[in-house]
């Protein structure tokens, strides 16, 4: 496009924007933050000159790689263990992208900066593009992979699935409550600036090591947009810091946003990288090593700590606790074990760990075998139906966990579980920070300050509660996780597609009914609840019952 044509296009687009004089604008998505009016600047000419041609070129590369993968028989070489976990990942990830796109208009009315509005509008276009190429990737996997079951119905899994509901609460955090909290602090300041490093950089590296070079192509294309999104968040943050009244809210939101991102993103991506791979080279990084480099060093030390010069209190304690969860408390390993425990409520096949896996885990996480090795051996022993029930019903020294009301990841690090009576019911939380989020942060007042825009954590949030008392065959049928023959389950605790080795609804029908720990807790009296809590925090690691003589 010539400079003259750019000028004309720019002038025409400017005519589409105006300040309405005939009514008082209605603040549909409000904020408790305050901002000063900013001077008007308009970078749209630069956007017209470079942005769209650049994105077009990136799309050409993505779709060209997709075509090349089919022609080059990539699906004959990729590891099945890896692609099975992509059924979960690619069912969840487009929803945060769509929510991120929807969140940008929330900022238009609350951030009085036209220059930032252009950046937010471009980010909205980015996020729509991201969800499009990700869903296209899932469709390509479904059409070419040896076992498409799970890819074909995963879009419905957010309202009733054992794991997808966790991803749903994460994504809906971008579009609910205070507009700045959701769309700026939670999304751009923490999720995009910190956790996309492991999500869109570290994870694609593991995909390539497992013979999947399509996911790296797509997600590196996505990550290349994140620098603009990070700039949007940082600019909004600096505007907020210019008003002293915002400091209290910023510090609240950084704590909430950091912790919820850690609980969900580390749970998911850590499991994919550590338990979805067949690459057991000793010199490749573990998730803990990736986290230390990409998040602790690059985000915490290089991005967050310098904000202290503006007087902002950084949640040092939560960053250190997150690292402790991953390195000392086995958070990722507990999550992977939980996913595999509930394989029958999922829609992908979960491969058991082998001796080679055991050796790698013990090398990277000394003491891993003593904690988790025996359970994974039992998982392999119980993988094919042979008169026994799925592992969740067998005696393998595992106590099924209660769900966290806030992040919806179960209370897997048992020593950290806390309980609270809120709105007439007893709720369980995986950590004190999740209790604080629900009981203190997401409330109409915060430390004596009115915060009417903050929102609430409401609804039927625990998956087990949705199906309490149901027969397991009816649960699986209701979720739609049944193959075309009407009886074989989509999920399996192994990768063997031999029909004689696969679990069916008939196997599920003989299992005990589903029980929700959270429902059972609320049926207890106060003494029973106290005893339950005391026993729970003495359990583990790896979900083991509490020692009898402790």
TrEMBL record:
Entry EC number(s):
1.14.13.227
Keyword entries, A-Z = Monooxygenase, Oxidoreductase
Q: What is this protein called?
A: propane 2-monooxygenase
Family annotation (InterPro entries): Ferritin-like_SF, Phenol_Hydrox, RNR-like
What SUPFAM superfamilies does the entry give?
Ferritin-like
**GO molecular function terms here?**
monooxygenase activity
Keyword check for Oxidoreductase: yes
Q: Which Pfam families match?
A: Phenol_Hydrox
Q: What top-tier enzyme class does this entry carry?
A: oxidoreductase
Q: Which reaction does it catalyse?
A: propane + NADH + O2 + H(+) = propan-2-ol + NAD(+) + H2O
């Amino acid at each position: 496009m010539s400079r003259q044509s750019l000028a004309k296009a720019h002038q025409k687009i400017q005519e589409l924007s105006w300040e309405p004089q005939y009514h008082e604008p209605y603040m549909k998505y409000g904020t408790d933050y305050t901002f000063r009016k900013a001077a008007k600047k308009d970078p749209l000419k630069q956007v017209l000159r470079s942005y769209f041609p650049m994105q077009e070129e990136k799309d050409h590369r993505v779709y060209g790689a997709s075509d090349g993968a089919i022609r080059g028989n990539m699906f004959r070489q990729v590891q099945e263990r890896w692609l099975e976990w992509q059924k979960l990942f690619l069912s969840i990830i487009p929803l945060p992208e769509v929510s991120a796109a929807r969140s940008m208009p929330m900022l238009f009315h609350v951030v009085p900066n036209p220059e930032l509005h252009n950046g937010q509008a471009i980010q909205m276009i980015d996020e729509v593009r991201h969800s499009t190429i990700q869903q296209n990737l899932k469709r390509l996997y479904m059409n070419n992979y040896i076992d498409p079951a799970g890819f074909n119905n995963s879009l419905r899994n957010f309202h009733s699935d054992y794991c997808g509901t966790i991803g749903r609460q994460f994504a809906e955090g971008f579009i609910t409550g205070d507009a700045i909290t959701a769309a700026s602090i939670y999304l751009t300041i923490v999720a995009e600036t910190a956790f996309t490093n492991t999500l869109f950089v570290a994870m694609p590296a593991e995909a390539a090591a497992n013979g999947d070079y399509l996911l790296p192509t797509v997600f590196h294309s996505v990550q290349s947009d994140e620098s603009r999104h990070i700039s949007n968040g940082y600019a909004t943050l600096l505007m907020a810091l210019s008003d002293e009244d915002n400091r209290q809210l910023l510090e609240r939101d950084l704590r909430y946003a950091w912790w919820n991102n850690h609980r969900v993103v580390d749970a998911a991506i850590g499991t994919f990288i550590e338990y979805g791979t067949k690459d057991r080279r000793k010199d490749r990084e573990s998730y803990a090593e990736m986290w230390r480099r990409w998040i602790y060093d690059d985000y915490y030390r290089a991005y967050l700590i310098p904000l202290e010069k503006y007087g902002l209190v950084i949640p040092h304690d939560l960053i250190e606790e997150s690292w402790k969860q991953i390195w000392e408390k086995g958070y990722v390993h507990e999550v992977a074990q939980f996913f595999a425990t509930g394989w029958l409520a999922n829609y992908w096949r979960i491969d058991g760990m082998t001796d080679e896996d055991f050796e790698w885990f013990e090398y990277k996480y000394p003491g891993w075998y003593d904690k988790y090795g025996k359970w994974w051996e039992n998982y392999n022993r119980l993988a094919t139906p042979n008169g026994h029930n799925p592992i969740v019903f067998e005696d393998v020294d595992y106590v099924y966990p209660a769900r966290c009301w806030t992040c919806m990841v179960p209370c897997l690090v048992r020593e950290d579980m806390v309980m609270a009576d809120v709105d007439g019911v007893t709720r369980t939380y995986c950590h004190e920070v999740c209790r604080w989020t629900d009981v203190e942060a997401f409330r109409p007042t915060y430390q004596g300050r009115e915060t009417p825009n903050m929102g609430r954590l409401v609804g039927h949030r625990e998956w087990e509660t949705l199906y309490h008392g149901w027969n397991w065959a009816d649960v699986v049928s209701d979720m739609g996780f049944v193959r075309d023959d009407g009886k074989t389950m989509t999920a399996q605790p192994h990768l063997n597609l031999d029909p004689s080795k696969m679990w069916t609804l008939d196997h599920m029908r003989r299992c005990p009914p589903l029980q929700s720990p959270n429902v059972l807790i609320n049926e207890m009296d106060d003494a029973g609840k106290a005893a339950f809590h005391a026993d729970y925090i003495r359990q583990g690691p790896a979900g083991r019952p509490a020692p009898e003589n402790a």
